[in-house]
Amino acid sequence: LTTISFFKYKKNKFWAFTQMRLAFDILNKTPGLSFFKLLGTGSGKGFSLYPDFSTYAILCVWEKESFATAFIEKSNHSKLISEKAFFREDFFLKTIKSHGLWDGINPFHVSKVDINEKNKIGIITRATLNKSRLFEFWKSVPQASQAMQNAKGVEWFKGIGEWPFIQQATFSVWDNLDSVKEFAYGKGAHSKIVTKTRKRNWYKEDLFARFEVLRTNIESFKN
Known about the structure:
The structure is a single chain. This protein has 6 helices and 8 strands, in the order E-H-E-E-H-H-E-E-H-E-E-H-H-E. The chain is an alpha+beta fold and 223 residues long. The chain has an 8-stranded antiparallel beta barrel, surrounded by 4 helices. Helix 2 packs across helix 3 (76-84) and helix 4 runs antiparallel to helix 6. The two termini are 30 Å apart. The model has no long low-confidence stretch (mean pLDDT 85).
């Protein structure tokens, strides 16, 4: 099971920023957690050179669902986040396709069971950029973000990343699998950008993962 949780802050933005380092040791000792990333976000919805200091995310891969539920609903760290944030949304995801590498491994294990076609689809795309191609990549970012914003069936998306400028990713939620395939394999602007990334060797390392969204938890607070 994979989870990705987004937290929005009003009053406690500096505290949230410090968690990008301080939470590492906590997560590293969390039972049943096989892979995790502490992520900042870009301003707006897609990639951006400008960070969003009000929104952060945690991506986790769990050995089984009970570990994920215990951490999100009962751990002291998760409770502290809820005390500091004014909004959080937790996505529970089942991997249905994944290829590429993230820090030298593919952390997402594909499930062999059938997909519930009524459920939404989550997508993670992630890349470490070649330094010699940074200008080309960021020059194409507005076009890529606009293509996703205009795509049929996309419900929500947000740029996420570990390091500004060099390590970038996007998480998006789609109405159904057909919408994802049309966007990925159609003849629109996105497919042209994908072709360009391969020809121009923009990425040192990249990964694409597709998930079934099993459920989401949304909470709002008074902070």
